[in-house]
Specification:
This protein is mainly alpha-helical. It contains six helices and two strands; from the N terminus they run αββααααα. The protein has two domains: 55 residues, no CATH class; 107 residues, no CATH class. The longest helix has 30 residues.
């Protein structure tokens, strides 16, 4: 156990770290995640020096038994209110850019497109890093995460060329050269045109 931490403090630290990574508290001292990042989980356990004091299991639902409905378990285990609030804040903050460079009234310069793209991804990641990516059929109705993803994709699609052109021009003017964009770059958000 890390020096100076009482067992109660250690449990609270572990709970906070797991929830930060999108784990849900499915029962007392039992956390679940539909697709956990095992490297992050290892980092948490090692950072708290409790790797040899916890069990990490992989599980699946056995449909042959009458059990608690999965939707109810998800609702009880994850606090979607804070996550939904984060997605709604993202939507409110970036909705104004949905028509930028796409024929709307606002046309962004290259430097503005670069700044908006940087902030767009930063804020989107701030929310999605805490999203456990629960399957859509188990999420609350009108889940704002879907709208946020669509908005982020639409804005990114509208501004990425101008942002890249600005970045290339800036690096070129300083005597450098950026490598060509890798093919995976164009696969973001299901494909960029």
């Amino acid at each position: 156990m890390p020096s100076g931490l009482a067992p109660k403090d250690l449990c609270e630290d572990l709970k906070r770290e797991l929830e930060w990574e999108g784990f849900g508290n499915i029962a007392p001292n039992v956390f679940g995640h539909p697709s956990p990042g095992l490297v992050s989980l290892r980092d948490i356990l090692d950072g708290l020096d409790i790797g040899k004091r916890v069990f990490v299991l992989s599980a699946r639902s056995l449909d042959v038994f009458a059990t608690l409905p999965l939707r109810k378990l998800v609702d009880q285990s994850w606090n979607f209110d804070d996550l939904a609030k984060g997605y709604r804040t993202f939507l409110k903050r970036f909705a104004v850019f949905a028509d930028s460079n796409g024929g709307g009234a606002t046309r962004l310069t290259g430097s503005e497109a670069f700044i908006v793209r940087t902030l767009l991804i930063h804020w989107f990641r701030r929310v999605t890093l805490h999203d456990p990516q629960i399957p859509a059929e188990l999420l609350p109705e009108e889940w704002p995460g879907h709208h946020a993803y669509e908005l982020c994709h639409r804005i990114y699609q509208l501004i990425y060329r101008d942002a890249e052109a600005f970045l290339n021009q800036t690096v070129d003017s300083s005597g450098g050269r950026l490598p060509d964009l890798a093919p995976w770059f164009f696969q973001r958000f299901g494909g960029l045109t």
